[in-house]
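Cross-posted from the bioinformatics board.
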Amino acid sequence: MIIGIVCYPTYGGSGVVATELGLELSKRGHEVHFITYNQPVKLNLFNNNIHYHEVIVPDYPLFHYQPYELALSSKIVDMVDLHKIDILHVHYAIPHAYAAYMSKQMLKTRGINLPIVTTLHGTDITLVGSHPFYKNAVEFSINNSDAVTSVSEDLKKDTLSFFDIKKNIQVIPNFVDLDKYNHVHENCDRSVLADDDEKIITHISNFRKVKRIDDVINSFNLINKQINSKLILLGDGPERIKAEKLCDELNLNEKVLFLGASNETAKILCLSDVFVLASTTESFGLVALEAMASSVPVVSTNSGGLPEVNMDGFSGYLSNVGDINTMAKNAIKILKDSDKLINFKRNAKLQANKFDVHNIVPNYEDIYKRTLEKQSKKDL
Ligand code: GMT
């Protein structure tokens, strides 16, 4: 198949999933065309089957806001026409599903029928999409997609409760390429970040409010009182300065390392003993899955789709949002006993195996095939 993928090219989970999906589809023989405003950060492999088309929004003094949807929908039309793209898969409803719908209408006037698959990722529904200023457009775009998927059962439930949805939503969980993590483990040197007697606790995110970085730091403070440890914070975003101030106030400057935004998540995770995720909500929590793929147990909140990913008492522990005491207790339970730590590490990996790329990506291929079949029946 010739598949177009529209996504955000940044470090966010939806862009990572879209990129990894495109890479895997290309390995499985499909021709993949990424259409977005920058080269996706994880798009590090080019082969005959991978193409990247940049969406450029020309500057004009009249525009208070740049009309990205306009440029994107125009670019999609050109690329579909030129490369004979069979199906378009958009990741994150805003504004991608909306722009895709416009492209579909424009292409119709040229006698081309372009089926659209929309994948809902989380904040496009829970934080942004359901805002009254966007709701009508998001609901319309979902209902006018040819197929809709969501990354967890919980996100599907939220979507059905926030919007009046007429389409069937198929849950296809996020995935990891386990081979990538197995390979990194061969040269994993933890002495670069911590002393021999220190445990390593890690958190990775875009440092937005929803990630509750202060809960991560406050629970680390409690853990560190009982277990000599280091906290590694990977990522960057609006809450970083506040987080640095908190570490200063708690006298943790020697104990917390801010590594900034980086592509090296697998290298950091391979040094880690426990991963902490304190989010108010996560539709899935891809980063928790990446931690488990590196055999790192996850201490997380129990919100959103996290219980579908992290098994309480098996691959880690779950607790209520904001309950930093339980979070710290759970991390200590795992860290204080080396047999327990080994067990949790093994279980984390076992749990990650369920989400292996080779098990999940065929579900997307099935959806593409079914949508194309439906489309060709309609065309007859
Ligand atoms: O919250 C983020 O880290 C970014 C956000 C995004 O839009 O890329 O992530 C969302 O999509 C990811 C991939 O499906 C999920 O793993 C994240 O849980 C989800 N974030 C939220 O729901 C807050």
